Amino acid sequence: MIRALVCSFVVVVAVSVLGCGAAKRCTVENCAGCCDTARDQCMGGSEAAACGVNGAACMTCAANQACLGNACVVPANVDGGAGGAGGTAGSGGAAGSGGTAGVGGSAGAGGTAGAGGTAGAGGTAGAGGTAGSGGLCAASPVTCSDQATMSLDFKATPAPGLITTVAIDGGFLSTIDSRAGGFNPTQAFVYAAFSPTGLDKMNLSDTQAIDNLDWDLAFKRFYVRINSGDSGPSCVGAQATTSTFDALTAAPAGRYEADDFLSAAPGCNFIDDGTGLTTSPRTALSGYYEYPMSCVKMTGKVFVLRTRDGRKFKLQFMTYYSTEQAQQTCDTTGSANMAPGGTIRLKWAPLP
Asked: Taking the complete model, does pTM exceed 0.85, yes or no?
């Protein structure tokens, strides 16, 4: 009786739309901006004091950063030097004729852009594509890191699996050894980052990567993670498109998703990807495959990946099985005929 009177008083005085029950927790399902964890409130995510997207914890940008595109970045004119003819520009700077721009910089006529840079007339950009504002987002620690460690069986030793990349018509093809020791994995994820020359393996263990900003993608069996949300402290995002690989020539407008396979703290409960494989985490790229019968079938979806420094890439997963023939058999019949899994072939190309 006393509780009912108290609740009625709260409703009348506070005019609360939620009444005396517990407020709905700010989560990725109900917040397009960022979650103020202290107040359990969804914020717009575009302010320096509360910056973020997709229901992630709000970040406070550093003094030299601004919240641009829901990410803390250093504006292009901060820490950017200018090189004269034949000179070298600093990070985010612009080199003059014949100069070389640094990371995120822009080379003038005849110049060469470095990692993530953009070459001007006559210049040459690396395979790493075109950088966005030249800034980097601040670290956002994984809230449920202990639960991520347990649910994905994180390892303290880097995986031995290798990555090879070759140029193909219209882009690149990277082959990732994600076998992780076999059907019952005993090894870590293989961590990778886009560089001017390809998709490079990073020498990281799972326990190191959970706090590392520099990786973009992680592979283990058919699990594929990106460095954001429940997977890592960075702001790598992905969106699925309805385009074919060749037809996609620019990143479409739309929301970039972070990895989201754990419910909000303090619950931090595991969320699977809905394929029927209950140990497979719901990640931003998990839609690349289906499990209709007894094999990992490619959906053919084309994704756009946005890295920490604003570069964009289109991705299409081509295989999971050791041979392309085994994958084709799986895709058409629903069975891979016992072919070994863990050979991910990823077609990708930079976008402007």
From this structure: no
β 302-306/46-47 pair status: unpaired
pLDDT digits (tens, 9 = 90+) for 80-110: 333 333 333 333 343 333 343 333 333 333 3
Name residue, tokens 């954001």: 228
pLDDT confidence bin for 350, thresholds 50/70/90: very high
From 47, 48, 52, select the one nearest 33 (Cα to Cα): 52
CA 299, CA 228: separation in Å to the nearest integer? Answer: 23
CA distances, 119 to each of 75, 116, 125 (Å): 19, 10, 5
> How many residues make up the chain in this entry?
352
The angle at the Cα of 93, spanning 91 to 95, to the nearest 5 degrees, equals 120
- Which of 5-14, 77-86, 125-134, 212-221 holds the top average pLDDT? 212-221
Up-side HSE of residue 69: CA atoms within 13 Å toward CB? 22
Q: What is the Cα gyration radius of the chain?
A: 22
CA max distance for the chain: 82
Which tokens in the block code for residue 97? 């004729």
End-to-end CA distance of the chain: 64
Neighbouring-strand partners of residue 275: none
- 């079938």: which residue's tokens? 297
